[in-house]
Amino acid sequence: MTLLTYTPYDGSAKPFTIGLLPLDPARWIEPDADLERYLDEKRGLLCDHRDDIFISQDGSENAQQECLDLLIAYLCEQHPTIYHRDGDIVSAAGHSIDLADPYLPPLLKAGSLVADDLVIMRRKENGWHLVAGHVAFPSSWSLQEKFGRPIQAIHADVPGFGEGTRNAVLINRIFDNLQVAQPVERMNWSVSTTNELSLPTSKHRRPPATTAPTLETSFARVERQTLRKLPVSGDILFTIRVYVDPIAAIVGHPKASELALSFAAQLDGLDEHQTAYKGLTHQKAELARQLRALAEVASPA
Q1: What stretch of H or E contains 92?
Q2: pLDDT at residue 204 tops 70
Q3: Could you tell me if 237 and 118 are in contact, meaning their C-beta atoms sit under 8 angstroms apart?
């Protein structure tokens, strides 16, 4: 059974809150045994859908290079058994990137080395804008649709985060005050009917499920997000690492009963708009019921 890396549905954070926490810089990127799978899929997407997974504004090249340099230095220092550099060649998990390749933009090179997606945000007059991105594994959104927009517009359809909301103001303030020496992280979760990594289609545009949901065929899609201010450009690098696990994998967790009950409680606590945003209008009640049943089975005698 799949081992769960992160379980933000455990009640440690409330859904639809900002929930940023200080991040130890040594834990910035966390490559694991699945790295090769992620890099393989990124390579395939680059060959077949480059314009869907990478985009950048003119003038973002220096920030992209800053990101690449920072990332390579970090990976080779913190994960030397995984990442190796020989001149301009950086290798990991059976993949190599030529840093001197003039046909690959710096952010595309950087994203091709890690399982995480990478986005560069830049401060402009009306807030922080997405100016470059290598996003192979979006969770029901399109990089092309979000490109060039301020963060409040990017979050326009998220309940409580659209333009004019308190959260929108707070996010811009947090970005403004982010310090180079103190990156931050947050967790996010959703539920999917597939374990595919790349989900560019909005959950609201997918055909409705024809069968009742089960914990075995429903997947917890967890995002570990980090924010790091680039010291030279002042731009912010946003990283997104996606983990996809069958919800049934909770049964193998050391605190399976508690985790199942907290997940059910988080589902129960979603209001109508939040439930619709997560695409759970027709699944929420049944998934919560099954989670409570799992808790009973997993509870120690």
Answers
A1: strand 89-92
A2: no
A3: yes
